[in-house]
């Protein structure tokens, strides 16, 4: 879509803009939300793999939250579907969800299912020059984790937009990461669009927010709802990377360089 959205704007693809946006991040690991997997509306492309090619990264994974397009009829992902699509697992039915791309070798991929809210909420967006309210139902969510060869565990997610439901989902992820196969708990990162505007609530007691930046909407940021969290990394061990609106997304990218004695 055109960012910021304007009347009559369509969802046309812009591969050059995507490639330049990815290049500007200079990321070793990149988390993606709201990505399409071979959906007709986005040219039947694997968007996560496209980002991996732009990053010159060998390792990528896509976790479908729904099968089909979120704009049309869809169903939740189930056990008959490929839960984590990678270059090694082969293809899957068209879907929509989250992704991770890494230049650092990935030892294993993991997925956590997060149930959708039973109720939706009303949202407003421009239509024919006026803001109109629409009732939007929630869809299932997930968290996607990569255990890296260098000992780090990176988790990406996109939580519900329904208040309290997103907080319960985040708490579930924080409990889940403790069970994943990593021994050094100082090397755990949780990142993504958490849809929570209160940093103190996101951090809780035992987690640190590694980047403080208003991220939404990208053309006029007013709140931070995207975060990079760590339980052990201290703020003095992190170098925030500034980001600007490039027209690619309705969220600003959030990026940090992490240096620790154990890395």
Give a structural overview:
The chain is α+β, with helices and mostly antiparallel strands. It has a single domain, classed as Deoxyribonuclease I, Chain A (4-Layer Sandwich), CATH 3.60.10. The protein is built from four helices and 15 strands. The chain has a six-stranded mixed beta sheet with strand order 6-9-10-11-13-12. Strands 1, 2, 3, 4 and 5 form a five-stranded antiparallel beta sheet that branches. The protein has a two-stranded antiparallel ribbon with strand order 7-8. β7 and β8 form a beta hairpin. About 2% of the residues have low confidence.
Topology of this structure?
Elements: H1 15-25, E1 29-37, H2 47-55, E2 59-67, E3 75-76, E4 85-86, E5 95-102, E6 106-114, E7 121-127, E8 130-136, E9 141-148, E10 153-158, H3 165-176, E11 188-193, H4 199-203, E12 208-209, E13 226-230, E14 238-241, E15 255-258
């Amino acid at each position: 879509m055109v960012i910021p959205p304007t009347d009559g704007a369509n969802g046309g693809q812009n591969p050059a803009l995507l490639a330049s946006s990815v290049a500007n991040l200079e990321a070793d690991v990149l988390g993606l939300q709201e990505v399409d997997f071979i959906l007709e509306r986005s040219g039947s492309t694997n968007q996560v793999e496209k980002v991996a090619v732009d990053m010159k990264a060998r390792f990528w994974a896509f976790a479908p939250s729904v099968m089909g397009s979120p704009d049309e009829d869809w169903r939740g992902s189930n056990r008959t579907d490929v839960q984590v699509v990678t270059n090694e697992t082969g293809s899957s039915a068209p879907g929509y969800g989250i992704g991770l791309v890494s230049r650092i070798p990935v030892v294993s991929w993991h997925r956590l299912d997060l149930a959708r809210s039973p109720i939706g909420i009303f949202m407003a967006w421009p239509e024919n020059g006026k803001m109109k309210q629409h009732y939007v139902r929630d869809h299932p969510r997930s968290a996607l984790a990569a255990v890296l060869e260098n000992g780090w565990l990176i988790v990406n997610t996109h939580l519900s937009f329904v208040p309290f439901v997103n907080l319960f989902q985040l708490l579930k992820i924080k409990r889940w990461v403790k069970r994943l196969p990593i021994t050094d708990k100082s090397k755990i990162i949780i990142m993504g669009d958490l849809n929570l505007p209160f940093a103190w609530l996101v951090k809780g007691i035992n987690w640190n927010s590694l980047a403080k930046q208003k991220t939404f909407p990208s053309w006029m940021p007013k709140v931070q709802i995207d975060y990079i969290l760590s339980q052990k990394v201290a703020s003095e061990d992190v170098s925030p990377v500034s980001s600007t609106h490039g027209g690619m997304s309705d969220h600003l990218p959030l990026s940090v360089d992490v240096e620790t004695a154990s890395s």
